[in-house]
Write a structure and sequence with these properties.
CATH topology of the largest domain: TIM Barrel
Largest sheet: 8 strands, parallel
Distance between the termini: 10 Å
Structural class: alpha/beta
Strand content: 15-25%
Number of domains: 2
């Protein structure tokens, strides 16, 4: 894996391999050796780079990786990833042969999907082995999955397949971060009913899974023997809150470390007079004479425009507030109170230094969104550099 600590690009993201591996091992130790941790690397590993992160997790002991699509799974195989790959969104007609060729394990929820895989296996071959699938059941989220009503019929059909093996059964929580959510309790109860229906049909899938990163912390009874860890592996959690009080529980957390540090360099520094409008629409007007630094980063790089006039960065170990509207390629920050700032100085968009910290959770709070969107939104034009 490439390891560097410097970049000649004006904006880049450093991904800590050590943090990724620490986080995976932390989750694995938390759930115990008898529970498989599937490291979810979908959406380009939540903006961290799917192949590089998959390599790190595989080296840390991950036997399973989770992706969204067949295309994402193929990209991992082309990057020499040998771990099992679970395709959480399944496949569309026309992709079934790639599922077989690239040794992927898709989610299924309709008999037509199974028929496509059966036919593809006969055409392509699979080393004489059946294609493993994980059956997705809708226990209440209302998104994807076979319904509880249709499950018995589909389970009965799955028993008759020749070239497809039901290896797993799973569902997806809608509110796992809410500690005492009634909907989560209902989904857990329904999943137990699902397992009963599957067993009654004469099927015995090896893997049973419900838990995402939030449920790894808040819903121990949902772990079964397989959990799908995503955001936690990159060093973040949605706060675990109570449905009754609405307050977070700080005790429900794991000692994971943010793996991504997002950096840029000061492009220019200018002294601006009082009452000077800055940026598009003059959205900020200097109340007094100010030193304003221009950073070569904008919303085309993934810096959310909602950080205009409310976000901040770290320059020379101190906070510099964002002033004016974040534009496509340039963002302005006020460095009046930070001595000696000059072009070429490093600025942290996400990261920590000298007791200051700006996190993806901070960005999400300022932008009224979730840290998933912040991390996934970092543009492809931002190089990812893997560091130890």
């Amino acid at each position: 894996m490439k390891t560097e600590v410097q970049s000649t690009a004006p904006i880049w993201a450093e991904i800590s391999v050590g943090a990724l591996q620490h986080n995976f091992r932390t989750v694995q130790e938390h759930v115990g050796a008898e529970t498989t941790v599937c490291a979810v690397v979908k959406a380009d590993a939540y903006g961290h780079g799917s192949v590089g992160c998959a390599q790190a997790f595989e080296a840390a002991g991950a036997a399973w990786l989770g992706v969204t699509s067949v295309e994402e799974g193929m990209r991992l195989r082309e990057g020499d990833i040998a771990a099992r790959i679970l395709v959480l969104r399944g496949f569309t007609p026309g992709e079934e042969e790639d599922v077989v060729r690239f040794d992927l394990t898709p989610a299924v929820w309709e008999w037509a999907q199974v028929e496509l895989l059966e036919a593809a296996t006969r055409r392509v071959g699979h080393n004489g082995q059946p294609v493993p699938v994980h059956l997705k059941v809708d226990t209440g989220m209302g998104r994807l999955g076979v319904s509880m009503a249709d499950l018995p019929a589909l389970a009965g059909k799955l028993r008759s397949t020749q070239h497809v093996l039901l290896e797993g059964v799973f569902s997806h929580f809608s509110s796992a971060e809410v500690i005492d959510s009634p909907s989560t309790a209902t989904q857990m109860r329904r999943f137990e009913e699902v397992l009963g229906v599957i067993s009654a049909a004469g099927l015995a899938p090896i893997h049973q899974h419900l838990a995402n990163s939030a449920a790894v912390i808040t819903q121990r009874g949902s772990w079964k023997n397989f959990v799908r860890a995503g955001l936690a592996l990159y060093g973040h959690f949605l706060p675990a809150v109570s449905a009754v009080t609405g307050r977070p529980d700080p005790a429900l957390a794991l000692p994971v470390r943010p793996a991504l540090t997002w950096k840029t360099r000061v492009l220019s520094v200018r002294q601006m007079p009082a009452r000077q409008p800055l940026g598009y629409s003059g959205a900020y007007v200097t109340p007094a004479s100010a030193r304003i630094a221009a950073l070569p980063v904008g919303y085309a790089d993934g810096l959310n425009r909602r950080l205009s006039n409310c976000g901040r960065v770290i320059v020379r170990g101190a906070y510099a507030p964002i002033v004016g509207n974040v534009s496509m390629d340039i963002t302005l920050v006020d460095v009046t109170s930070i001595p000696g700032v000059e072009p070429g100085d490093e600025a942290l968009l996400i990261g920590a230094g000298n007791g200051c910290s700006v996190t993806a959770v901070d960005h999400a709070s300022w932008a009224s969104t979730v840290p998933y969107e912040i991390l996934c939104g970092i543009s492809k034009r931002v190089p990812r550099i893997y560091v130890d």
